[in-house]
Design goal:
- By secondary structure, this protein is mainly beta.
- It folds into two domains: 200 residues, Sandwich (Jelly Rolls), CATH 2.60.120.200; 132 residues, Sandwich (Jelly Rolls), CATH 2.60.120.
- Helix content is 4%, strand content 43%.
- Strands 1, 3, 4, 6, 11, 12, 13 and 15 form an eight-stranded antiparallel β-sheet that branches. A seven-stranded antiparallel β-sheet has the order 2-5-14-7-8-9-10.
- A hairpin with a 5-residue loop joins β11 and β12.
Length: 355
């Protein structure tokens, strides 16, 4: 099952450390203000990416805390190391809010990967030049936590680098994974970039419960109003222009927005078409930024409509500060069935006031 994904496209740059603070706002946990940020155009496909540098001779990181402890976690990302590889931490999984290491990958100056078990013991070293400076690679890691019978499989650019199945320590008395870390992996203050991070577990609908190979996260914005337009725009002549904050960039807070005081109010929007024709589409993630201006309890939810079949997102209680809310929809609700480009191109998204 897909747990989370981020293409880092709708983020601000690093002026006044805005990228760091925006990562915090969107559920990431960056380790150090001066080492973590966003590039607006340095991603795998020319848009956004998270950036990490190894500042003060320390291995800095961003991590995602999972909503619950998992026995098996699959993580994948495009990663571009900085200019000087060294003996540095690259990737980790942890248990118990960072109380117990599950597994670790490190890089070497020769571009090899090193695999460590939960005790921090080196298990294996790959050939040199598996990872190269200044080049985007696709990293995939699958780990099952268990005492002495754990599993770790690591792939780089779709090739198996390490395969340990049922014969590695990935738990010391505690079985589970609840943190996934991404590090700088270079020994100088040059940035490592991460793009299109996807994290899954081994449950739910195949193939979303195992390796799925290289995947691109495409960010689509509202580009037209629909007949469903209960909200009021803050200015201008089109509602969608209030909520289509540009790529690359960030939402413009109170400069443009739509609003309502009415229970049950809904507004829906058309979105732009996919610029590519993918062989498979594994999920749609609906993202919305919401706040409230009253001390009363207010609730809202995102909406996704495919061929007039509406998928409701989770109902959220709003805050007086803007917060991000996301819903992952693995299959087209018009079925349900697998997503297609035609269905995405005809998609409508929106928001509804629940309370």
């Amino acid at each position: 099952m897909l747990l989370t994904m981020d293409g880092f496209d709708l983020y601000p740059g690093n002026t006044s450390y805005a990228g760091y603070y925006e990562l915090l706002a969107r559920g990431w946990n960056p380790s150090y203000l001066f080492a973590i940020g966003i590039t607006l155009t340095g991603g795998k496909y020319g848009q956004g990416a998270a950036t990490i540098v190894r500042a003060d001779n320390n291995d800095h990181s961003i991590y995602r805390a999972l909503s619950s402890t998992k026995t098996t976690v699959i993580a994948q990302t495009f990663v571009r190391p900085g200019t000087t590889l060294g003996s540095c931490i690259f990737f980790e999984m942890w248990y118990g809010a960072h109380s117990a290491l599950v597994m670790r990958l490190k890089t070497t100056a020769a571009g090899a990967l090193e695999l460590y078990n939960c005790n921090g013991i080196l298990i294996a070293t790959s050939a040199a030049n598996v990872i190269r400076s200044g080049t985007y690679h696709h990293l995939q890691v699958k780990c099952t936590s268990a005492d002495s019978t754990g599993t770790v499989v690591v792939r780089v650019d779709n090739a198996n680098i390490f395969v340990y199945s049922g014969n590695i320590d990935t738990a010391v008395g505690n079985v589970g994974i609840d943190r996934v870390y991404f590090f700088s992996c270079v020994d100088r203050a040059t940035e490592t970039r991460y793009d299109d991070i996807i994290i899954m577990d081994n449950t739910g609908l195949a193939p979303r419960n195992d390796f799925i190979g290289e995947c691109r996260i495409c960010t689509l914005l509202p580009n037209a109003d629909t007949a469903m337009s209960d909200f009021t725009r803050s200015s201008g002549s089109n509602d969608y222009e209030m909520v289509d904050d540009a790529i690359p960039g960030n939402h413009d807070v109170d400069a443009t927005y739509i609003w309502t005081n009415s229970l049950g109010a809904k507004s829906m929007f058309d979105v732009g078409n996919l610029s590519i024709t993918p062989s498979a589409i594994y999920a749609v993630q609906h993202s919305v930024v919401l706040d409230k201006t009253t001390s009363d309890t207010r609730q809202a939810r995102g909406l996704v409509s495919s061929n007039s079949v509406v998928q409701n997102g989770a109902t959220r209680s709003l805050n007086t500060a803007y917060l991000y809310y996301q819903d992952l929809i693995e299959q087209d609700p018009d079925g349900p069935k697998e997503w297609t480009k035609a269905a995405i191109d005809a998609l409508q998204i929106g928001v509804e006031v629940v309370l």
